[in-house]
Amino acid sequence: MSLLRVDRLSKSFGQLRAVDGVSFEIRAGEIYGLLGPNGAGKTTTISMVCGLLRADFGNVHVGGLEFWSDARAARRLMGVVPQEIALYEELSGRENLEFWGRLAGLPSREAKSRAVELLEALTLTDRGNDAVKKYSGGMKRRINIGCALMHRPKLLLLDEPTVGIDPQARANILEFVRGLRDSGTAILYTTHYLEEAETLCSRIGVIDHGKLLAEGTLADLRAGLGDQQTYTLEGAFADAQPEAWPGFTSQFRIIQQTDRLLIVAALNHGEPAEAIKALLALPVRIDNVALKRPTLNDVFLHLTGRELRE
Length: 310
Description:
This protein is of the alpha/beta class. It is built from 11 helices and 14 strands.
């Protein structure tokens, strides 16, 4: 079942087209990763999905409901976890959970029992009565997620839920998110950590300049680069112009070039030995050539031409 369907969503601010015809859907029990550099259109897309912004064009359906035809019912089906922590520092973790639960419409008794349930699920029972200001960054992130789950949403929007925390806290949150997925929750997930998207997301959409450039499973995205045939060259590339090398562009596609690094994908599925032989014969000093499996970072660089954090 599709819990979220975004259809040709568009939004402009003056002359800037922030989101341009974006479409995707997320099914129950699926984590969909939306990846893009800063300014790519992720936040604007999420803002339209949860109703903070109204689209200039296109539609959002939540659980089969057209969002703006019954916004209240659509919002009851979703929970939103913003990148900025939305907690009251002077209140305890339990009090924060109860507050956001009541705000979501839960009766007082149900909010109290649900808070106890989530504190246990988030392994924070022993700290539940402590003021949030005494929490570590990872604990605050967990309570932040808990607040969005008080009303048991079927769709969860997670915007950078692990930013700025230590590896152990990140691992705890990712394990909790996997549990939500396994229980049938549909999750829209944005992150700056490509390894999270690789290991966590069922499908991934790459957005840049407001357009969805590609989407699919990690295997689908890798296939666009020739799957196994990706090569990393170390050498002197500061003044190199690979496009001008005879025959180069008919054999290889450039993924990334720096002063010391050139990453390319083979345009055919021939023997790796032949590709390496051709690369070593390039008219530039080559110190090392390595064949590697394409990563999500390679895909991202190829599609956007820049790093995720740029």
